[in-house]
Structure formats: C-alpha cells, structure tokens
UniProtKB/TrEMBL annotation, chain B:
Residues 7-249 form the ABC transporter domain. This is ABC transporter ATP-binding protein. Signal peptide: none annotated. One of its GO terms (molecular function) is ATP hydrolysis activity. Transmembrane segments: none annotated. GO terms for cellular component: plasma membrane. The keyword Transmembrane does not apply. The lineage of its organism: Bacteria, Pseudomonadati, Pseudomonadota, Alphaproteobacteria, Acetobacterales. It comes from Muricoccus nepalensis. Coiled coil: none annotated.
Amino acid sequence: MRSVMKDERAWAVLLLALAAFVPVVAPMLDSPATVALATRIAIYAIAASSLNLLLGGGGLVSFGHAAYYGLGGYVVGILYAHYVSGEAFLGVIPGSNDLLVTLPLAILVGGLGALVIGALSLRTSGVQFIMITLAFAQMLFFLFVSLKAYGGDDGLAIRRVAPVFGLNLRDPATLYWISLGLLAAWLFLMDRVSRSRFGRVLAGIRQGERRMAAIGVRTYPYKLVAFVIAGMGAAMAGALMVNQARFVSPDMMHWTKSGELMVMVILGGLGTLVGPALGAAALVTLEYTLSGLTEHWQFILGPILVLVVLFARGGLMGAVRRIAGMRGRAPDALPAGELPAGRVQPGDRAAPDLPLREGAAPHG
Amino acid sequence: MAEAPVLSVARLVKRFGGLVATDDLSLEVMPGELHALIGPNGAGKTTAIGQIMGEITPDAGAIRFLGEDITALSTPARVRRGLSRTFQITQLLEDDTAEGNVALAVQARAGHGFRFWRNAARDARLREPARAALAQVGLAEARWEVPVADLSHGERKQLELAVALATGPRLLLLDEPMAGLGASESLRMTEVLRALKGRIPMLLVEHDMDAVFSLADRISVLVYGHCVASGSPHQIRQDPQVRAAYLSEEEGV
C-alpha cells in the first residue's frame, strides 16, 4: 500500500518536471498556443485538486465549488478596476494590479466565502448538502450578474498587470511557470494534508461518520476546515485564471463550471493525488481539440466521458494503476472464503445451561 | 456512600411509532462488573445500547454515567467521558488498515486532529498504543497492515473490540461480539473478554449463552423492551418467570 503511494508521488514529480519543459518545446513544434493551453490545464488542476479534498478526501459532494473559484477571480478583477479608477474599494481598500497583493487576498476571500457557505451547508448531508452548495453558488452567480458596477453579465477586463519580481506576466511562459509552480506547491500540500492526522480524520468521515462519532470525533469542525482549505485552493486557481484570460465574468461561478470541476476529479480519479490534474488535462485538451473540429463538440465529449467512467473504474489514475500493476484503494468484494461465518452449527459447542439458541441475524 | 454505579439507566422509554422498543428500562453497571443483557430477537437490546451511547434519543428517562447526567450529551461527548461501544454489524473504515482503524481511535482520544503536516501513519505516539490494543484482542500481527476490507468476519469482530479499547473506555458496551463467529473464535473472544473483566466494567449483549453464563456477574433479561428479571447467572438459571416467559417462547419457535 505504502509503495503504491510512493509511486503516485513519483508520478506527480515526473509529470510536473516534464510539464516544466512545455514552453521550451512548444516553439519548436511551432504551436505557441500550447503554452496558454498548458497554463489553463495547470490552473484547472489546482481547482480540481482542491475539490478533490472534499469529494475524494472527505466524501463531501460539494456542487458549488465554482463559487470560490469565481470569488478568487473577482478579487483580482475588482481590485484591478479600482486600481484603474483610483477609488478605493468600499472607500477603504485601495485597488491593485500586483499579483503579490491580489493572489493572497483572493485566497483569503475564497477561504472566508467557504467558511460562511460551509458553516451553513455542512449542517445538512446527502442530497440536501449537494443542493444547498449548488444554491449558494448560484446565489453568488446571480449577485455578480446583477453587479453592474463590475460589469454585470459582461464581466471585467484586466490589462497592464504589474510585474512580479520583475517578471512580466504578459509573457505566456512566465505565467505558465508561476501557475505550474503553484500547482506543485498545492499538490505537495494536499499530499501532506492527506497523510496528516487531519487527513486521517477526513478519510474516516468519508468511510463512516457513525464510526467517527463512536470513537469520539465531532466531525463538523473537520469538515468545515476541509471546506475552507478547498475554497482557498479554488480561489487561488480563479485568481490565476483571471490573470491568464485577462478577463473575469460571472460565468466563472456558473453551476456548469462546478460540474466541469467535478468531471475533472471523477475523470482523473477520485481521492488520488495526480488524478484531478490528469482529469483537468484530459478535459481541457478534449474541449480544445474537439471544439476545433466541430461546434457541436459537446456531442462527442459526452460519450467519451461516459466510456471513461464506465470502463476505467477509478478514472484515469485507476487505469494507470491497473496498467502499472499497482493496487487500488479499496477492493470491491471480500475475497472468497472470507465471508462471515454465518450461523454456527448446534453441534459446535457444548450444550448451554439454558437451551437457548438464536441465530446471528441482525435484530434490535 | 458505598459503591456508586458506573452507569445507571433510569426508566428509559423509546417508541418507534406504535412499537415500544424500550419500555421503562432501568439497569445499572457497577464498577468492575460484567453485566450481561439477554433477550429474544427484537427485545430492544441494541436500541438500549444506542440510547446509552446517544445515537438514539430516548422519549423518557435518564442516563447517568460516573455520577453525571449524560442524557442530553452527543455521542462524541459521551465517548470522551469514557463510554465506548462495539457494533454488532461492524462499523469499520474499510479502506484503512486494521492498525489505521485503531490508530485513529488513539488519535481521537489524544485530542484534536487539527495537525496538517506530519505523517500520521509513522507517528509512534499513535502506532504504539494501537498495536498494544491489537495485541490485546489477539489479532494476528501479520494482519495488522491488511486493509479492513480484506479481513475475515472474525478478525473484524476482534478489530471492533480493539478500536473500542483504544478510546480508553471506562465502560464498554459490547453489542454481540460473538455474533457470526465460529466455535473456536467464540471461545477466543470469551477469553479476551475474561482478561478485560474486572479492569473495565462491561455491558454485554450476547446470544452465546456459554459466553454469557461463564462471563457475567449479573444477567438482566429483556423482553419487549422491558427488564423481566435481573440477577446472578445462578438466579437467572433458576428463575421460573424467565423459564416460562423466555424459554417456552423459544421452544414455540
């Protein structure tokens, strides 16, 4: 089991190292658009991985993850708008076009948003939880649609971003390496967290809340902290995406974006380290190639997703594991001969003092 | 005051619609005592455990543990005060190893789990007590690193007990620890419980009468949620009411 995990971390390091060469290789292949595409993949990988902490880590099906992604994006957008106009936000916070200011602020706001939404939604569970997270995200979506001061439906454009440590963010390769570096840092954090005491509790919550209560764990605070961490990750991704696209609009918070992030996680492999990044790469690449072929590209994408989910159990990472002969997380069934012993034969024991014999069937 | 009971359940009532699952149930567990709760299927034994643990809210009555009224407390709060249970239908973390399951209980007992950086699987402060609990219930060492999903039913039952022990219980509620075990496994479990007896008070729900009569200091008989008799194993064996109400019914099946 442990060697499998080691392998997955090796996978992560290898893939990130290879990905670092994309801006070097792309011009040789005469396809400069590749760098922008790879940047989007790295950014989506952060967002998907943050959702995976909830989905795969704690078994919390949050269907409103785009809310934090969009919040992060809007922090960058709104601060830029105030930077341009020269007026302070709410008369207090001065605008900024510096990523070193906007990115931490985006992460903070994303975390606060997740704290509020999580604190309320985590009072529910199951389908109710899915619906309430979706509802909160849609509320935010419509809030930003109606915010005419910040572009409403049309969103905000971002130009002239300040250089970071003298690096020009308008240069695609620079922004790519920053995004990839943050992805690496994020995956490292996720790996540490999933193995920590906190991660163990979260995994326990996924596998059995009743068991967690029976060992004396109040699960709510753990779920809330996971929610906040995931919200911060999504907000970081959102802030980066706005820098890449130089544009923010309410579409970043639309429920279809939440769905896309979910598809990435499930497609790549729920609860794995590299899976969500693979899922992001697969989905973004498919979208890009298919939309180049036909405008009805979703018509082709749908069946491909269905096939992957049907035939590659555990997503792409599950397929990789099977091909590489690694062991998955949970076997599906009890091995033969290991089933519960069932009823004991009366002859098995000495006769009891009271001729009282009942089966082992569940009862009150 | 002489000895105060560890657990005292007073006039507990639980109804599910028209069904009275717990009917004016009162019972006590004294320090060091192994108190067995027996009764036919549907007598409300598991429901009683559920109420003592706070998983089911009683309609009436009070539960006192170590002198404190715990009737309104949540399950985790009760566990932290020293109540611990095993489940008849095992509730284990299937993806984790046997040791991982116990280590999580050790961690929960040690305090909060808001530590985000260190690898918990290599933490000796969690591993050592977990391994001690696994050894205590007699789970073969070769099976400690095996995922729970790959363990046999008997091994899962042992693991249930190890997890309960790792919470540092001051009272153990055992819900049919022998259910589904083979004869030799049952005997082994009986010996494990005998070794614990006297050190940790226990409330044992069990259908294995060999185990019950060889282990219990006191036996209470539950029929339709009501306690019809309570006494030493000898008294219960002789009780005409128990024989009439309980045994004739059994024979009629």
